[in-house]
Amino acid sequence: MKLFIHTCVAALLLSTAAMAESVVRVGVSQRDIGSMDPAFGIGNGDEFPMRQIYSVLVGPKNGTSDLTFANLQGELAEKWEMAPDARSVTFYLRKGVQWHRGYGEVTSDDVAFTIARMRDPKTGTAYSSNFQEIVSVETPDRYTVKINLSKPNPFFYAFALMPRFGGYIQPRKAVEELGEKFRQNPVGSGPFAFSAYESKQKVILKAFEQYWEGKPRIDQLEVLFLPETAARTLAFVKGDVDMIEGATVPGWQASLKKQKPTTVFDAGRPGGTWALHFNMTRKPLDDIRVREAIARAIDQNAWVAAFGDFVTPTYGVSPVGYYGALDKADLPADWPLLYDPAKSKKLLAEAGFPNGLTIEVFITEREEYKTNLLIIQEQLRKVGIQINMRVVDHTSYHNDIRRDLNTMVVYGSGQPPLTQAVLNAFYKSSAIVGKPTRNMNFSHYGDLAGNSDSLLEQANQEIDDTKRIALLKQVQIEILRQIPAYPLPSAAGSWMHDGKTLEIGFPVKAYMGTFTLAKASRLAP
């Protein structure tokens, strides 16, 4: 009898364990969500849940940043083709892909609606410039989408359609029905559906049983807001979270590995693009001598000394490893961004600041932003430039720099690994903050201190690969001679997960912004 009872109890425990939900918790370096609407997402804390909720037409293969057209991985699209003249791209959608919460099948009409919404200046998205080359979208049937462009652009898909905010496809019916509520009540077609949001605490997502690749192995995904490095690290070490966003703090990775040997570092290379943008509408940054003085006072080796091979120097507008990036060998002998503190002091004196100057700057609380500015602050102090730094929350920072309120803007971005994507976002005149496209040209380059729009357009339209790369390098040199910004070293994008409790499902060698956990598994403790 006792044996029978024990056997029944054991069976019941096993049955209960089998029925228990598989929950994975992820800590992001953000105080709260900004938006879960792809048109308005800003920070990594927005993007991580968004990547799980929404799908794109196509993207790089899992764990890579390979943007070769033939090597792309289909999500909503099962086939795609580009016209020989690179003026149109056609996508053939998978049949039967479902929206969350019973909003029906994903169709070509939803894709056309998303593109129209992202293009429309009235929407107010920061990503509309990525869609401005589109002249029309044809939907001959429910599963075919042909995007026609005003000019040749062999990499159009990489700007507008990748897994990065504006590229996520949105359901017409839900957006129109929910209106403003869609921002915090999203509906997508990705592996996880939105379940709940607790202000400044977490977003809860549930596995979508009708996901086109099959229900994810994880039943529930919780994205926790842990902006402080110490708190996020402690939660990971204690096992309260299974995965965290990395921190750009000297010695942090080595310390974490020592505290938790089961840590797996998912480092993405090439890393994001970073720069110190000079608002040339503000004095004294309207004076190129002051901008050059700042540039000459900054030594990228300071980052290498602090972080080791986690960072790499940047010579042009985009990191080494991006398509069309400048290498050290490409720089002219008279390059105005070379480290030279003596020349920096001389330029300041010539500009009327023999005793130095003070610049007021606000910065987000995120570690990598603060760390970058602290390193800059210390180096500029040595030539007589004082940076008065005020720290604000991350969402406010993004909102206020887009209102053109900062004097100098430290900005990091996970752009597609293409130099033209960086140029389009930060250096086209149409991308100047305050203009309808609402993009990220914080320096006002194009209206002030030069204009490279025509040369950039020539590069974007060039079909020949060798000629296109040469043009991209030419336009970078032309722009940076005016010093609208100082390129900062690029840090590898990083997430850390506990290899004992979580299996991602593929090796992470590179990624754009973040990656989906559709194939991830919660391992037995």
Outline the biggest β-sheet: 7 strands, mixed
The total tally of domains equals 2
* CATH T-level topology of the largest domain: Dipeptide-binding Protein, domain 3
Helix content percent band: 25-40%
CATH class of the largest domain: Alpha Beta
Rg computed from alpha carbons, rounded to a whole number of angstroms: 24 Å
Give the spatial strand order of the biggest sheet: 8-9-10-1-11-20-12
- Per DSSP, what share of the residues sits in E-state strands of 2 or more residues? 15-25%
- How would you describe the oligomerization state of the chains in this entry? single chain
- What is the residue-mean pLDDT, rounded to a whole number? 90
Given as residue ranges, the uncertain stretches (5+ residues, pLDDT < 50) are: 1-19
Distinctive features:
15 helices; four-stranded antiparallel sheet; alpha+beta; 22 strands; Dipeptide-binding Protein, domain 1
Walkthrough of the structure:
By secondary structure, the protein is of the alpha+beta class. The chain folds into 2 domains: 23-193 and 493-522, Dipeptide-binding Protein, Domain 1 (Dipeptide-binding Protein, domain 1, Alpha-Beta Complex), CATH 3.90.76.10; 273-491, Dipeptide-binding Protein, domain 3 (Roll), CATH 3.10.105.10. It contains 15 helices and 22 strands. It has helices at residues 2-19, 44-53, 108-119, 156-160, 172-178, 229-238, 252-259, 288-296, 301-307, 341-350, 367-381, 394-401, 419-426, 453-461, 465-480, and strands spanning 23-28, 58-59, 73-74, 77-82, 88-93, 134-141, 144-149, 192-198, 202-207, 220-225, 243-245, 263-268, 273-278, 311-312, 357-364, 385-392, 408-413, 485-488, 490-491, 493-498, 502-503, 521-522. A 7-stranded mixed sheet has the order 8-9-10-1-11-20-12, with helices on both faces. Strands 4-5-7-6 form a 4-stranded antiparallel sheet, with helices on one face. It is globular, with a radius of gyration of 24 Å. Mean pLDDT is 90; it is low at 1-19.
